[in-house]
Amino acid sequence: MAEEFPHYIEFRHVNKTFDKPVLVDSNFFVDSGQTVAIIGRSGVGKSVTLGHVMGFLKPDKGQIIVGHEDITDFTEQQLNHVRRKVTMVFQSGALFDSMTVAENVLFSLELREDYDAHNKDDVVDGLLKMVGLTDARDSFPGDLSTGYRRAVAIARALAAEPQCILYDEPTTMVDPIMSDHMTVLMLRLKTQLRMTSVVVTHDLDLLNRVADTVVFLSKGRVAYFGPVAGLYSSKDPDIHEFLELDKVIRGGGAADLAGRRPDEID
Questions:
Q1: Mean pLDDT, 10 residues at a time, over the chain (266 residues)?
Q2: pTM of the complete model
Q3: N or C: which end of the chain has fewer CB within 10 A?
Q4: Domain range spanning residue 131?
């Protein structure tokens, strides 16, 4: 199967139309251990792309490859198998409000076939330590900021031992300190666990620090697919306009960040 589908995730000539075309002949891939960022203006199909990876949406045409398998025509039962390998961190966190932080993480842990009740506390504590939330163990989601709820959602996702995590705007609506916390956390998962990741984002600082490859969507099409540095040298007018607008919003200098990485990740 890996010979036929060598990439962990791949879109092959994917088309999707709602009231209007949202994805048009979309082609890109994600290799194991890679982090791919999907960017573009609002409404260009970024979240729709994630929905196809999770099997929430079916393409009108084309193939969706996930975990080296063609999931295009998978049944819901077959997709449950895929969703054990690939998990998604939603903007809201999608936590259970009536459960504590530790109970939210434990909920995902208990779904594993190799679940061991004897060491559950150690596993939960280890996951919360990884995302920097040890002190929030007994808190409820409603007591936490948006950013910390997302960090809890990441811990809960990791409890299932996935091969791949999808992030939907992980640094949206958080302050700069929390944004940096989320970025460092994503880098830690990438470098320490070699986690395969897809990140939908408007945040070019995040993209520059975590992404290996970029997919730029414009008018439903993949206008650019390649290394981060190549995005900033692209002659595509839509990409140029997007980057220039980001400079204006941030006060300039976004392009100068291309390719920067922290020297060390704890």
A1: 85 95 96 95 90 95 96 94 88 82 85 72 87 88 87 87 92 84 88 92 91 94 95 91 78 46 39
A2: 0.86
A3: C
A4: 9-257
